[in-house]
TrEMBL record, chain A:
SUPFAM superfamilies: Bet v1-like (SSF55961). CDD domains: CoxG. InterPro entries: CO_DH_gsu, START-like_dom_sf. It holds the Pfam family COXG. This is Carbon monoxide dehydrogenase subunit G.
Automatic annotation (TrEMBL), chain B:
The keyword Oxidoreductase applies. One of its GO terms (molecular function) is oxidoreductase activity. Residues 20-135 form the Aldehyde oxidase/xanthine dehydrogenase a/b hammerhead domain. This is Carbon-monoxide dehydrogenase large subunit. InterPro entries: Ald_Oxase/Xan_DH_a/b, Ald_Oxase/Xan_DH_a/b_sf, Ald_Oxase/xanthine_DH-like, AldOxase/xan_DH_MoCoBD1, AldOxase/xan_DH_MoCoBD2, AldOxase/xan_DH_Mopterin-bd_sf. PANTHER family: ALDEHYDE OXIDASE 1-RELATED, XANTHINE DEHYDROGENASE. It holds the Pfam family MoCoBD_2. Coiled coil: none annotated. The keyword Oxidoreductase applies.
Length: 146, 784
């Protein structure tokens, strides 16, 4: 499964970057995160509820940030394992400043196994895209109100 | 023999119990103290197992035990056996549960035993398995590429076997002489059987007698007992009783020895309580042996008169991650040997490469190899006719083996015993009104409507099988059949057949044979099958063998019964044995029909033995083991008429005509039902079904939502007819009809769709012919 897209924030790049490096913000951005704790440098452990329709469950996830190049780029890997399968997602986030604010470009790929894939394959991509869009809207709201 | 029953379209005797919910399937059974097993299955197609943590599951209330593959192997459990060996083939071990690595999605890594099914399923989620995920490959051709991830260390190139049949040099020579050659690349896609009753197993161990009983959804309980007891679990055969009560469909998928029944049998002793497992439908999708999955390159050489000179076939057969019980036989001896079809082809050469992939094992599925062969030859014949500008029916007729050439030795090992291919073709053409239909097709094309007419002239080798022949080809068993006929003192009869039923109506068809042979009412005949505790060793049901092999064994026993009864009757009638005639259930002295003893009177005397021939043993029962002399060769012509909507790509089947020759028909109603079901499965493959794996070897079509089985509205009302060319070498003259529909239908449907699409210049589309594929092909052919 592949995801990619762009999003414009009417906010300066440093603020966007700061939010994206804040674990509390990441926890609010990612779908279904119930707990997120740093366990090392740029490594977090999380508990997430993931699901598509009836195929849902609580997943243990490890989130690793790498290639950190403030305030422009990082790579994020999410490895989640749960009763209905596993998710291994790997992607990049790139920020560019322009006169009106900041443009974010994201792209990534996820390998999904188990029931999540075999029952949910057709719904996986639209669902993931929906969750990403939601997360980005939340982030924008956070940046513009705070 | 009077035929009051044979040939009569009787309703099935078993149907009242099935349609009123009184059948007994494995999952209906229960035992005191029964506990339930649920399987922990791998979500990965290929991974190393780093650790399995049982603790949380074991702490869950109601959980009795958790076992892993290592637990089983440490206790001495062996690999599941493969029942058909080819020279030089790789045979990596297949343990009931994965020990070090998992090799397909759905492979079992642990089993949870709990007080009830719900607890067991819940606790499956508490077993934590640490995997190291490895790269995987699902596609047979990709698995052969250099650098593809290896499924087994024993086969680093993923090749299980390379096999060939026919004369390579002679075939090359035919192609050098050819006026025209026709080449096709075909995919015969992977199918998932989907029997209506999921697989199930319940096992009990009795420590007092050291005996096991296993109730299992099996098409061949004795074979199950032999393979599981002797080769896997090390249980002495006489200490394991296998019972297969009513079985709700199998289509081959219930022939094989699977991990689950092995696990519950072993676990029943470990936990000291009976253990049951029943597959959830999702488990069936990943764990029932799949069918087909061939990638084929085929070429036909034709001379200037339109006679076929040679056939060259190269097939990659995807075997899945492990060798299922009969897997190696299907794409080889049940495939390559059928490539001559109904045609006189002087030279044939076929090469098959059997390949391991990270997918569910592949084995026999209705037709097993023969639908694949029919699809290759019948698609090629159609394309050749079109490219030579000949009518597809006439091109076939020209190349048929003529009736005076039987027995006919093909270049691919089989000797066809009988056949009249033109007879079936003519009848089918007549039913469909071929000439008028072609005119109509032309007229409709003028109006922008696209109908197509597709042929499939198929041959089948069934009645599996002569033991010596299959033994020389690699089968690890003889494939004869047994029958024990027990006449009770009142003349009622119980027949114990070594064949089995998974829904084909044996209790009716076999009883029809018995009642006629003995001249007794059918109500007096009981057919017993599926229990190693009461039935003599038998080989089960597959390969359309029950009537020709199982039925013939019954006839042999009935002959012994009648011989002995005649001796008793002669004594009672005070006549010479050779003067006693048996007719309509009565023994009488030749020419004096008034002086008779009924079969029932004779039966009673056999047990009383008061007034009895000196030297003759009391009692009246006989058993026989029938080993067929040859395969049987049903054949026929199927014609499918379709309409394709060029705007949507949707195919509608307008008519489906099937003329089959299965020899003599015991029960036309049952035979017709078999043909209906077979065609439905063939149509399913042609238009709808397909197992789809993604690039990580995840099965995407793992539920009824994503795997399209044919439904009533996908099918027309079938037009069924027969020709009758009796099988010359078995006592009933029957050939078997369980698979004909599936063997014929894919080619008939696909040929019809390609005929409809001919005006667009479309030559071939791989199955399933979904609206999307057809729509795209039309768009590419005719840019908008």
């Amino acid at each position: 499964m592949r995801l990619q897209g762009s999003y414009r924030f009417p906010t300066a790049i440093d603020r966007v970057w700061g939010a994206l490096m804040n674990p509390q913000v990441i926890a609010r951005l990612l779908p279904g995160v119930e707990r997120l704790e740093p366990v090392g440098d740029n490594v977090y452990e999380a508990e997430m509820r993931l699901g598509i329709g009836p195929i849902s469950g609580r997943y243990k996830a490890r989130i690793t940030l790498s290639e950190i190049d403030p305030p422009n780029h990082y790579r994020i890997r999410i490895q989640a394992q749960g009763p209905q399968g596993t998710v291994d997602a790997n992607g990049t986030i790139d920020l560019t400043a322009d006169e009106a604010g900041t443009v974010m470009h994201y792209e990534g790929e996820a390998k999904v196994t188990g029931l999540l894939m075999s029952l949910g394959a057709r719904l996986l991509e639209p669902t993931a895209q929906m969750l990403v869009n939601q997360g980005l809207k939340n982030l924008e709201a956070l940046l513009t109100t705070a | 023999m009077a035929t009051r029953y044979f040939g009569v379209a009787m309703k099935r005797r078993e149907d009242p119990r099935f349609i009123t919910g009184r059948g007994t399937y494995v999952d209906d059974l229960t035992l005191p103290g029964l506990v339930y097993a649920a399987m922990v299955r791998s979500p990965h197609a290929h991974a190393r197992i780093r650790a399995i943590h049982k603790e949380k599951a074991l702490q869950h209330p109601g959980v009795i035990a958790v076992f892993t593959g290592k637990d089983m192997v440490d206790s001495g459990v062996k690999s599941l056996p493969c029942g058909w060996l080819l020279p030089g083939m790789k045979l990596p071990p297949h343990y009931p549960m994965a020990v070090d690595k998992v090799r397909h999605v759905g492979e079992i890594v642990a089993v949870v035993i709990a007080e009830d099914r719900y607890t067991a399923e819940d606790a499956v989620r508490l077993v934590e398995v640490e995997y190291e995920v490895l790269p995987a490959v699902a596609d047979g051709a990709k698995a052969l590429q250099p650098g593809a991830p290896a499924v087994h260390d024993e086969a680093p190139d993923n090749i299980c076997f390379r096999w060939s049949i026919g004369d390579k040099e002679k075939t090359e020579e035919a192609f050098r002489r050819a006026h025209k050659t026709v080449k096709l690349e075909l995919v015969n896609q992977r199918l998932i059987p989907n029997a209506i009753e999921p697989r199930a197993a319940m096992a009990q161990y009795n420590p007092a007698t050291d005996e096991y009983t296993l109730w299992v959804t099996s098409q061949n309980p004795h074979v199950h007992r032999l393979l599981m007891a002797a080769f896997v679990l090390g249980i002495p055969e006489h200490k394991l009783r296998v019972i297969s009560p009513d079985v709700g469909g199998g289509f081959g998928s219930k022939i094989f020895v699977y991990p689950e029944e092995t696990i519950v049998t072993w676990a029943a002793k470990q936990v000291g309580r009976p253990v049951k497992w029943t597959a959830r439908r999702m488990e069936s999708f990943v764990s029932d042996a799949h069918g087909r999955d061939h990638i084929t390159e085929a070429e036909l050489a034709v001379d200037e008169k339109g006679k076929v000179l040679g056939l060259r076939v190269k097939t990659i057969a995807n075997l899945g991650a492990y060798l299922s019980t009969f897997a190696p036989a299907i794409p080889t001896y049940l495939y390559g040997t059928l490539l001559s079809g109904q045609y006189e082809i002087p030279a044939i050469y076929c090469e098959v490469t059997g390949v391991f992939t990270h997918t569910t094992p592949v084995d026999a599925y209705r037709g097993a190899g023969r639908p694949e062969a029919t699809y290759v030859i019948e698609r090629l014949m159609d394309v050749a006719a079109r490219e030579l500008g000949e009518d597809p029916a006439e091109f076939r007729r020209k190349n048929f083996i003529p009736p005076d050439k039987f027995p006919y030795q093909t270049p691919v090992a089989l000797q066809y015993d009988s056949g009249n291919y033109e007879g079936a073709l003519n009848k089918a053409l007549e039913i469909v009104n071929y000439k008028a239909l072609r005119r109509q097709q032309e007229e409709l094309r003028q109006q922008g409507r696209y109908i197509g007419i597709g042929f499939s002239c198929y041959i089948e080798a069934c009645g599996i099988a002569p033991s010596q022949v299959v033994g020389s080809l690699g089968a690890q068993a003889g494939l004869w059949e047994s029958a024990l006929v027990r006449v009770h003192p009142t003349g009622k009869v119980t027949v114990y057949t070594g064949s089995h039923t998974h829904g084909q109506g044996h209790e009716t068809a076999f009883a029809q044979i018995v009642a006629d042979e003995l001249g007794i009412p059918i109500e007096d005949v009981e057919i017993v099958h599926g229990d190693t505790g009461s039935v003599p060793f038998g080989m089960g049901t597959y390969g359309s063998r029950s009537a020709p092999v199982g039925g013939s064994a019954i006839v042999l026993s009935l002959q012994k019964i009648k011989e002995k009864a005649r001796k008793i009757a002669a004594h009672l009638l005070e006549a010479a044995e050779e003067d006693v005639v048996f007719e309509d259930g009565k023994f009488y002295v030749k020419g004096v029909p008034d002086r008779f003893k009924t079969f029932q009177e004779v039966a009673l005397q056999a047990y009383l033995a008061h007034n009895y021939p000196p030297g003759l043993e009391p009692g009246l029962e006989a058993s026989s083991f029938y080993d067929p002399k040859n395969f049987t060769f049903p054949f026929g012509t199927h014609i499918c008429v379709v309409e394709v909507d060029p705007e949507t790509g949707k195919v509608k089947i307008l008519r489906y005509v099937a003329v089959d020759d299965a020899g003599r028909i015991i029960n036309p109603l049952i035979a017709e039902g078999q043909v209906h079901g077979g065609i439905a499965q063939g149509v399913g493959q042609a238009l709808l079904e397909g197992a789809v794996y993604d690039e990580n070897a995840q099965l995407l079509s793992a539920s009824m939502l994503d795997y399209a089985l044919p439904r009533a509205d996908d099918l027309p009302s079938f037009e069924i007819d027969h020709t009758v060319t009796p099988c010359p070498h078995n006592p009933l003259g029957v050939k078997g009809i369980g698979e004909t529909g599936t063997i014929a239908a894919t080619a008939a449907v696909v040929n019809a769709v390609m005929d409809a699409l001919a005006p667009f210049g479309i030559r071939h589309i791989d199955m399933p012919l979904t609206p999307e594929k057809i729509w795209r092909a039309i768009r590419e052919a005719r840019p908008a």
